[in-house]
Amino acid sequence: MRVTKHVKAVSLVSLLMTVVALADPPDNLAAGGNFSIRLLGGQYTLSGAINGSGPFTSSSAYNFAFLNDGTGLDWQLRVRDLVNAIQSNFVIRYNATVLPNGDIQWDMNAFPNDCTLIRLGGQDVPFLLTRIWGRWTATMTSIDCANDPLGARSSPNINIQLDATGGDAGNFLQLEGYAFACQEIPTLLTYGNVYSVSWVGYGGGVQKSKGNVVDDCAVNDDDLLLVLFNFGINFEDADVNGDGIVNDEDLLLVLFNFGAGN
Ligand SMILES: [Ca+2]
Ligand SMILES: [Ca+2]
Predict the structure, then answer these.
(1) Which of 16, 56, 109, 179 is the most buried (most CB within 10 A)?
(2) Same structural domain for residues 130 and 226?
């Protein structure tokens, strides 16, 4: 029985290999399921009811999962995770576009109208966040399969590098709101602008749940063989869907994703 299944599987693989096209960077990025990012530095200004400016750096790298709706490359986060000085839990979404030149651009534009707090000089003061918007743009470069250089994700390995491009038009964050009281009083209107941003990101590879059990950033013969040689037993390394047994379901996941990441 098992031998018959294997023969059928190998025949199907031969068929698939004739129709699977080489994946391009956007497909590779999506197949990884998430990406890591680190802001290397930038400048900010505040004007209006609050005034200030200066450089900023970030010592931390972050990892964001791609959303399953939309393009498969959209992602979201809370305002407080993007601007640590603002405590808002409002969720903002970055919508992805692959530009004609192959770069990826994420746009965000939200109107939270959230009465929250902003940290000024070590004190939290009320802040009515009325709008926040921005853009990240990056080149996508295919690189050799490797561990995430930012260390922000454990698996899968990465094979796409993202580098900021497009200057201030391509990479910025802006916000506006009312400081010191959650009321739309004109004299309290405050603008924030983040610019001269440099950042780097990594992604790609293929998730184990899509058949990449041997993590070489692609679903290929090695994955197929690991599943076949451990067919019918409980072997975590070859258990694609993590249900405690290596069986038809795992084999199908490998076959349906065969060629991904190549
Ligand atoms: Ca693999
Ligand atoms: Ca399984």
Answers:
(1) 179
(2) no
